[in-house]
Amino acid sequence: MSSPAGAEPEADIGLASKTDVGQVRQANEDSCDTFAREDGTRLLVVADGMGGHRGGATASSTTVATIAEIFDAEASARPSDMLGRAIEAANARVFEMAQQDPELEGMGTTVVAFHLDARGRGTVAHVGDSRAYRYRNGRLEPLTTDHSVVAEMQRRGLLSADEAAVHPRRNEILRSVGVLPDVEVEVADVDVHPGDRFVLCSDGLSGVVTDDEIAAVVQAESPEGAVDTLIRMANERGGPDNITVQILSIPADESRGDPEATAPVELSGVGIEAIESRRLQRKRTRSAAFVIGIALAVLTIYFAVQHFSATANTTAATTTSSASAKSAKSAIEVEAPADQFEIEEKAPRRGIPR
After folding, report:
1. Residue 122 class from Cβ within 10 Å (0-12 exposed, 13-18 middle, 19+ buried)?
2. Residue 331 contacts by C-beta under 8 Å, 6 or more apart in sequence?
3. What pLDDT score was predicted for residue 221?
4. Angle at the Cα of 55 from the Cα atoms of 146 and 99, rounded to 5 degrees
5. pLDDT tens for each residue of 330-352
6. Per-domain residue ranges for the chain?
7. In what order do the strands lie in the sheet with 243-249?
8. How far apart (Å, rounded) are the C-alpha atoms in residues 186 and 277?
9. Tell me: domain 2-265, CATH 3.60.40.10, correct?
């Protein structure tokens, strides 16, 4: 079910890339590729399409191909400018294709790209919720922030990380390539040190494998081995979406005692069991919280119904029919409070369902 999208066995920079359909989807709408210039400049791209089997695959593959064209054509441009223009060009192309073909209407894709120039300077660009990470000194640091409804709610303090993981709107994104005529691209320079490892992935990985788990695998294995292990882990947890992973490893500077220069250590059975135990514990905690929440909601509705029934009976005996109508209207309004997120003054529009 896996198909390699590119790998380099060079002794200096390690690079591996793979995409997998997962366990649920009938087709793979993800696309990814890696590109290089003769001077050593490299580009990694991951796109996660949406809009049906044909539409999603068309949007993601078109986006990757368009970015590659701009990468080849603008070798002398600043990486940040080049990546911004490349993703904007992809947006225009995907949007135009959707307008011309009714079967592709509404298609779009997320995208994340990492550019490493010949002098070892990094740049990341993204739209949507596909992610880029940097592994350094035992820590996995996010280089991107999801453009999604639940991520925005987390930033505003309306949701915790655990709540966001099970929120019914977790599949809605706020930015996408190709859905609208214009797109806002987020671009940032990235600090690169010897021994750093960079991970790009679609949410088919980040949605079911935690950051700590990704860090443990990336530290312990070569890029090729880590890509295989991470995809296997996602599939073992149900593989609910297409899974794409790219890893680029910067050579460590052993002469300067770089902390990442030590030989990779295999994850022990105890370590793997501990990781899985923590994951199951988190799952049980979320399940218990969900059950408690449902029970409280049922009790709240029950007592509310009892209260409103008693109020209605009293009102019917002592007030006019007009007053009864006003009371009923008030009860309806109490039963259907507005969504706090949607009524905020600066709330983003409703997300695009994936």
Report:
1. buried
2. 308, 311, 312
3. 97
4. 100
5. 333 333 333 333 434 444 456 67
6. 2-265, 283-353
7. 2-8, 14-20, 243-249, 197-201, 131-136, 139-142
8. 36
9. yes
